[in-house]
Amino acid sequence: MEIKLTDATVRLRPVVNDDLEVLCSIYASTRQEEMKKVPQWSAALVTAFLKQQFNAQHDYYQKNYVGADFWVIEKQGQVVGRLYVQENFQNREVRIIDISLLPDWRNRGIGAAILKDIMNEATRLQRPLTIHVESFNPAKGLYERLGFKKVSETNGVYHLMEWCPTTN
Fold first, then answer.
1. Do the domain assignments include residue 2?
2. pTM of the predicted model over 0.85
3. Structural domain range at position 157
4. Which residues on adjacent β-strands are paired with residue 93?
C-alpha cells in the first residue's frame, strides 16, 4: 500500500527481523497501565509475559494478514511506533491492523496525521477504513474525532470502528 505522508519528518519503513526488539518494546508500552494492575508480579515476570504476548500477536498477524504492510514509524530518523495495514482486507476495506506510538511520542499529532493520510488513501481507493480498538483505549476518542463510528463489539471490549469516504 502506498501512503502519501503529509509530515515530511515522518517515514514508514518495512519491518525487518532486527526490529523485533523495538517492536516488542512498542507493544509493551501499550500495556503499561494494565501491568500496574498486577503489582505482585516481578519486573522479570512482567517482561517475560509481555515478550510472550508480543510474540504470539506478531505470529498471529503474520499468519492472518498475509500481504499486509508491516511498518516501523520513524520521525527524524528515530523509531517512534509501528503501523500495520492491509489495503484490501476481505476484498472490501482498508484495515488498520495496529497503530501504536511510544509514550513519549503520543499526543503530538503524529498518529492523527498518519490516520488522516490513511483516510486519504482509503478515499482514493473508495473503500471503508476499519480498525479494532479496545473500549478503554484512549485512542478511541481520536478515532471518534476523526469520524470513525462503532459498527460492532466483541466480548464487550473490542470495538470495530469504521470510517467511510464521502461520495461526491
1. no
2. yes
3. 10-163
4. 89
pLDDT value for 168: 40
- Residue 69, domain member (yes or no): yes
Measure Cα distances from 17 to 21, 56, 95 in Å: 9, 15, 23
What span, in angstroms and rounded, lies between the C-alpha atoms of 129 and 87?
9
DSSP alpha helix (H) spans, the chain: 20-29, 32-35, 43-64, 110-125, 139-145
Determine the Cα–Cα distance for residues 140 and 163; give it in Å rounded to an integer: 13
Phi, psi (rounded to 5 degrees) for 42: -70, 160
Contact call for residues 38 and 12 (beta carbons, < 8 A):
no
- Span 95-150, pLDDT tens digits: 999 999 999 999 999 999 999 999 999 999 999 999 999 988 989 999 999 999 99
**What SS3 state is found at 152?**
strand
> What is the CA angle 140-145-148, rounded to 5?
65
Contact present, 15 and 74 (Cβ < 8 Å): no
Please name the helix (run of DSSP H) or strand (run of DSSP E) that holds residue 58, with its range, or none.
helix 43-64
